[in-house]
Write a structure and sequence with these properties.
Layout: E1 14-20, E2 26-35, E3 40-51, E4 54-55, E5 59-60, E6 74-79, E7 85-90, E8 97-102, E9 110-111, E10 120-124, E11 130-136, E12 177-183, E13 189-191, E14 199-204, E15 210-215, H1 221-224, E16 228-233, E17 240-241, E18 249-254, E19 260-265, E20 277-282, E21 289-290, E22 317-318, E23 324-331, E24 334-341, E25 347-351, E26 367-374, E27 380-389, E28 392-402, E29 416-417, H2 423-426, E30 435-440, E31 446-452, E32 463-469, H3 483-490, E33 494-498, H4 508-512, H5 521-534, E34 539-549, H6 551-560, E35 568-572, H7 578-584, H8 588-595, H9 605-610, E36 624-629, H10 637-649, E37 654-659, H11 666-669, H12 672-690
Parallel strand pairs: 32-33, 32-34, 34-35, 35-36, 36-37
Antiparallel strand pairs: 1-2, 2-3, 3-4, 3-5, 6-7, 7-8, 8-9, 10-11, 11-12, 12-13, 14-15, 15-16, 16-17, 18-19, 19-20, 20-21, 22-23, 23-24, 24-25, 26-27, 27-28, 28-29, 30-31, 31-33
Length: 691
C-alpha cells in the first residue's frame, strides 16, 4: 500500500452527467481526467450497451482534440429520441459548440454549430430533426474602413446591478441569452426567442410544435431574479407566460401525453431558504400543483465534495404513462432517487441509501449526484446515476426496476456498477472510513457529525485533529468523498466535521436557524463539536486545528476571534468584513441582507460590524494561514487583504497565499497544479503547528 498524496488528484477520473437512451438499452456519460503536463482538464463521452439483462463493458465514444493538440472537453451527452444519434457539447474547435455523432454507424462526430459564442443546454426535438440550444446574440461584425485607426480603448461602462459573476473574468457580457433551433440535417440555425432577456431550459412538447423555457421578463428582474415558465411555437411567434412570478422556475419537462409540464421551483417569491420542489402545471397554463406533503427536503444533491466534475441533472423525468415524476433529493448527508404521483400527494423513495430507510435500500451508494432515466413503456424503468461514497469520488451505476413500484436493489432488479474508474488508483491507497455520530449543541439541539481516524490508527496513541466547516451556510457534509479529508488522515490527523444549524438536507426550518445569527448559535454548534473532540480518547486536545472555506472560512475567522481552543487555523476563500462585502461580492447586496435577517447597511451598521470577524482581530492568538483566489468574486480577495493586514499590523502569526487566475471554485475546479498547491499548503500548515 502507498500513502495517498495531493498529487494523486492528477490520477483520478471523475464521472458524471449520465443519459439513458429512450429504449433503456444504452447509457452514456462523461469522464473527466487531468492532464498534469498541460495543467488542464480533458473529458470524453463513454457508452455502455445492454447485453441481455445487464450492461456490457464501457467503451470510449469521443476522442476530441483542441486546436493546441491537447484533449478537448466533451460533455452533456444526449441521445436522440430514436436512439440513433448522440448530441454533445465540445470545445474541440475552440468555443464550446454542438456536435452530433451517429452511434449506429460510428465514424467521426459532426460539428453542427459554428457560433461566435459558446452554446449550452441542448435538447432534441421528438422527431430527432432539430436541436434547441442556448447562446448569446451574435456580436455585430465591424471592419475598419480605409484610413480608420483602431483606438485600442479598454473601457467598460457598467449600467446593470448584476454586472459580475464568480467564474466570469472581468464583467458579465450584457448580451442576453436566447434560444435557438438548429437543423440536424443541414446545420441551419434559427433564433426562436428575442429581446433583452436571459432565456434558459428549452424543452420540446411531445408533438414537437412548442418549446417551453424559463425567462425573467419583468422590470424588477435584476432585483428579484424570479424566472417564469413560458412557451413559444416552434415556427415562431409571441411567447406565452404560464406562471405568475410567485417563485423561481427551472428545468421544465413536458409530460409524455402533452397535458402537463413538470418543473423545479417554489412559490415563495425571492425567499432563499425554502424547499425547491417538483411542481406540475397544465401545459396551457393555470395553477401549479404541489405534491410535497410532509416531505421536508429539497431537490438535488446538496452534499459537498472537492473531488467531483459532474454538471449533470437531478431530473425531473416523467414515466411513459405520465403518472410519475422522478428526481434526486438530499436527506441528512445522503441523496437518493424519489418520485411523486401526478394524481396524489407525497414523495416516495425509489432507490438510494437514505438514512431514513437504510433497511430498504442498503445496496446503493449513499451519495447520488446526477441522474439519467428512460421509461420505454414496457413496464420497467431504467435509471443511471453517478454514485459516490466517502471512499470513492463516484462511478456510473444502472438499475432497471418495475415502473409501477418502488423497489430497492435486490435479486429481482440488481444494481449494476458500470464503471470502476478509480479502482487502480485508490485500491492501493489506504483510506479512512468516516464514522457517523450525533452530539448535542449548547441548547440541546442534536446534530449529525462524522469522524475520520488517521491512517495506521493505533488505539493507545494520541493524534492531532482538524475540525472542518462547510460553506453555504445552506450546504452540507455527508457521505461523499473529500480528498482534503483523506489527505489529512493519511498524514496522521483525525478529521471531524458536522452539519451545524443552517445546513441543507434537514428541512428549511433547520436551514433558517442561522439567518440573522451568523456567529451566534452556529458558532455554539461548532464549539460543541470541539467539546465532543475532547471526549474522544485518541484525540490530543492540545493539538487541534480548524479550517473551512467560504462561509466555513467566515466561521474559522469568527472562531479564532472568540476563543483560543485551536492551536492552528486555515481560512479559505473567507469573509472577514460583512459591511464591505455588500458592494464587492457578486451576491453581496442581496446575500448580505438575506444572511443578516433583512438588515441593510444604512439601518444596521453596528449589527453588521458586530457579526464581522474584522472586529475581533485583536483577540486572535491562533496561527493563521489565509488561502484566497485573486479572481474570487463570491468572497472577494479584499476580504482576505483586510484580514491579513489587520492581523499582520497587530503582530499576529499569519501567512497569506494568493492564487492568481483562480476564483471561488479553486478547491473543486481550479487549475490542477493550483489545487495541489492548496492542499499541500493546508496540510503543511497543520504539520508545522500541530506536530
Amino acid at each position: 500500500m502507498t500513502q495517498l498524496t495531493s498529487r494523486d488528484l492528477w490520477s483520478l477520473t471523475f464521472v458524471g452527467d449520465p443519459d439513458v437512451s429512450s429504449s433503456g438499452q444504452e447509457v452514456a456519460w462523461v469522464e473527466t481526467t487531468i492532464n498534469a503536463k498541460s495543467n488542464h482538464y480533458e473529458s470524453s463521452i463513454h457508452i455502455a450497451r445492454k447485453i441481455g439483462d445487464s450492461f456490457g463493458a464501457p467503451a470510449r465514444l469521443t476522442y476530441g482534440k483542441r486546436p493546441d493538440g491537447d484533449g478537448s472537453l466533451d460533455r452533456s451527452p444526449r441521445f436522440s429520441p430514436q436512439g440513433s444519434h448522440l448530441a454533445f457539447l465540445s470545445n474541440r474547435s475552440g468555443k464550446t459548440q454542438l456536435w452530433v455523432i451517429d452511434i449506429r454507424k460510428g465514424g467521426e462526430a459532426r460539428q453542427l454549430t459554428n457560433w461566435d459564442d459558446s452554446v449550452s443546454q441542448i435538447q432534441w426535438s421528438p422527431d430527432g430533426r432539430y436541436l434547441a440550444f442556448v447562446s448569446k446574440d451574435q456580436k455585430p461584425k465591424t471592419e475598419l474602413k480605409e484610413g480608420e485607426i483602431a483606438t485600442g480603448r479598454d473601457v467598460t461602462v457598467v449600467t446593470r446591478l448584476r454586472y459580475k459573476m464568480n467564474g466570469v473574468p472581468g464583467t458579465v457580457d450584457p448580451r442576453p441569452n436566447n434560444i435557438y433551433v438548429v437543423s440536424v440535417e443541414d446545420g441551419c440555425v434559427r433564433k426562436l426567442t428575442d429581446g433583452d432577456f436571459d432565456d434558459a431550459g428549452p424543452t420540446f412538447s411531445p408533438d414537437g410544435k412548442t418549446l417551453a423555457f424559463t425567462s425573467c421578463r419583468k422590470p424588477d428582474c435584476e432585483m428579484r431574479l424570479i424566472p417564469d415558465l413560458w412557451t413559444v411555437p416552434l415556427e415562431g411567434g409571441e411567447p406565452k407566460r404560464l406562471t405568475s412570478g410567485k417563485g423561481p422556475v427551472h428545468a421544465p419537462v413536458y409530460s409524455p401525453d402533452g397535458k402537463s409540464i413538470a418543473f423545479f421551483g417554489h412559490e415563495k417569491g425571492d425567499e432563499s431558504v425554502v424547499n425547491v420542489e417538483v411542481l406540475v402545471i397544465p401545459a396551457e397554463g393555470g395553477e401549479a400543483r404541489h405534491f410535497w406533503g410532509d416531505f421536508d427536503r429539497s431537490i438535488g444533491c446538496g452534499i459537498g465534495s472537492d473531488a467531483r466534475a459532474d454538471a449533470g441533472r437531478p431530473g425531473p423525468y416523467w414515466s411513459s404513462d405520465s403518472k410519475y415524476v422522478y428526481f434526486l433529493a438530499s436527506d441528512a448527508g445522503h441523496s437518493a432517487i424519489y418520485r411523486i404521483a401526478s394524481d396524489g400527494v407525497g414523495v416516495d423513495m425509489v432507490g438510494g441509501a437514505s438514512p431514513r430507510s437504510m433497511e430498504a435500500c442498503p445496496k446503493y451508494p449513499p451519495c447520488l449526484v446526477s441522474l439519467g432515466m428512460a421509461d420505454p413503456g414496457n413496464g420497467s424503468v431504467t435509471f443511471a446515476f453517478n454514485g459516490g461514497s466517502p471512499l470513492s469520488p463516484g462511478d456510473i451505476y444502472a438499475i432497471t426496476v418495475p415502473g409501477d413500484t418502488c423497489h430497492a436493489a435486490g435479486d429481482a432488479c440488481p444494481l449494476q456498477q458500470i464503471t470502476k474508474v478509480n479502482k487502480d488508483v485508490l485500491s492501493n491507497r489506504p483510506l479512512s472510513q468516516p464514522e457517523p455520530f450525533t452530539f448535542k449543541s449548547s441548547d440541546g439541539l442534536v446534530l449529525d457529525g462524522w469522524m475520520m481516524k488517521p491512517i495506521d490508527f493505533e488505539q493507545d496513541k494520541k493524534y492531532p485533529a482538524v475540525l472542518e466547516i462547510h460553506g453555504g451556510p445552506q450546504a452540507a457534509y455527508g457521505e461523499a468523498f473529500f480528498l482534503e479529508f483523506q489527505l489529512l488522515a493519511a498524514d496522521g490527523f483525525g478529521v471531524f466535521y458536522c452539519n451545524p444549524r443552517g445546513s441543507s438536507g434537514y428541512g428549511p426550518d433547520f436551514a433558517r436557524k442561522v439567518i440573522g445569527d451568523w456567529g451566534g448559535m452556529d458558532y455554539q454548534d461548532i464549539m460543541a463539536l470541539r467539546a465532543y473532540m475532547d471526549t474522544v480518547p485518541w484525540v490530543d486536545s492540545s493539538k487541534t486545528g480548524i479550517t473551512g472555506g467560504s462561509y466555513g472560512g467566515y466561521m474559522t475567522n469568527w472562531v479564532i476571534g472568540h476563543n483560543h481552543r485551536f492551536q492552528a487555523a486555515v481560512t479559505q476563500r473567507s469573509i472577514s468584513n460583512m459591511y464591505t462585502k455588500y458592494g464587492t461580492s457578486d451576491i453581496g447586496w442581496f446575500g448580505n441582507k438575506r444572511g443578516m435577517g433583512g438588515r441593510d447597511l444604512w439601518d444596521s451598521e453596528s449589527f453588521i460590524m458586530e457579526r464581522s470577524p474584522m472586529r475581533y482581530v485583536p483577540f486572535v492568538k491562533t496561527p493563521l494561514l489565509i488561502l484566497h483566489s485573486e479572481q474570487d468574486y463570491r468572497c472577494p480577495i479584499e476580504q482576505a487583504e483586510q484580514y491579513y493586514i489587520a492581523l499582520k499590523r497587530l503582530g499576529k502569526e499569519v501567512e497569506f497565499v494568493r492564487f492568481a487566475g483562480e476564483n471561488h471554485e479553486l478547491s473543486r475546479s481550479g487549475k490542477p497544479w493550483n489545487r495541489v498547491e492548496r492542499l499541500e499548503r493546508l496540510v503543511g500548515w497543520f504539520n508545522i503547528h500541530l506536530k
